[in-house]
């Protein structure tokens, strides 16, 4: 179900409950008793949770600003960000660092209100079970983002009040304990099947699998039980979804939403649009000249994919290497980017763009779209199972999962391609290297990049991102648009936002993450 304007407006009133400055004022919005007197009211509050998730400061835009530009895998057309976040040099008062933190807590606090309101209401358990499951899932999903991005955060699981609004930082271990608890409740309460893209019990399984894979870090199965726990969750999802026939169809508005491989997606519509088309389409890349081109893959991301599978149909579906630039008179000029254009310091052509979220109709006057953002899809689950199985038992039974993804890729062309070929004959170490690269080839730009390249520790991140980038021959770091990365372990986390340290008396400068 897509967010409706009336639901968003209704929840603006509910959101007023969350501000500490209004805690003691007489309310001018519907009372808690009224909101939770029937299922319609509870669903209005639930829609408010989703509006928080889809907000510009969270998944609507700034989550991509933060995690893509901070991943080490993207460049930007926004000059101001070339020397800070796109150079792996964010600072604690940077707008993206601040906004995502606030957007996450806005969503968490709305989930807290919903959970508490339902638990205090007289609504039946059967009627509210799935609603509660969605709230627990969204809270778990959001805290999982927070703990990976910032390392620590206040653990707020009750409605905001004057007594708890300034909670101190909780450790990552405490936060992960809550994430796992919430995800297990979601798994218990959620429905098994939906048609609206919202989470099901299988989305909770996938969330838990990702949590356990993160906790496993770079350890082998002999050193940690987390790989087995990850397998136990991921295998529950196997076979419950299916890959669409053509990879390319995932990136067209007409065929992208609610597909057979969608496990959890964030909905928007032209009235309440998500901003991915605006962020990823080249500046002046539509007739309305309303797009920004803020996020575009680094050259090495294209090179690595082409070197692995030169004839992979996913390359054309992932990288936009030709586009039309419009001037104020509406005249369009064809631009050809890297790899055809190899000169440096050109905003329009020195880097490819991400085709997945590039506006498909260049004559559009705006960036508004009915295209949702798919946060979890089945091909990711298959790659996860391949990685997990390889860690537990070696590659023998892991090929089956990744080869499903590769087979779909080969057949996503007008005529079947010879590449990428099925995997066979790899050692466990070779498989580990290959599957980590495969996440980039299959999922680039889909919200997982920052996490996947850091999940195996700093040494891995340094080798695969920092060193790979700095040693890409075509770059000229004397030119303003090519940015050299510093070898600095602080890039494994973002700083705790300056506003939180300033405003919260229970957090001090000494609590800041190392290196900031």
SSE blueprint:
Blueprint (H helix, E strand, L loop, with lengths): L4 H11 L16 H4 L3 H15 L8 H8 L4 E2 L3 H4 L12 H26 L4 H26 L2 E2 L14 E2 L1 H18 L11 H16 L9 H12 L24 E5 L9 H5 L15 E2 L1 H10 L4 H6 E2 L1 E5 L5 E5 L16 E2 L18 E5 H16 L5 H12 L17 H16 L5 H6 L3 H13 L27 H6 L13
Helix pairs in contact: 1-3, 3-6, 3-7, 4-6, 6-7, 7-8, 7-9, 8-9, 9-10, 10-14, 14-15, 14-16
Subcellular location: Cell outer membrane
Protein name: RagB/SusD family nutrient uptake outer membrane protein
Keywords: Cell outer membrane, Membrane, Signal
Please characterize this protein's 3D structure.
The structure is a single chain. The strands form five sheets. A two-stranded antiparallel ribbon has the order 1-5. It has a two-stranded antiparallel sheet with strand order 2-3. It is built from 19 helices and ten strands. The chain has two domains: 5-190 and 493-511, Serine Threonine Protein Phosphatase 5, Tetratricopeptide repeat; 204-484, Serine Threonine Protein Phosphatase 5, Tetratricopeptide repeat, CATH 1.25.40. It has 516 residues and is mainly alpha-helical.
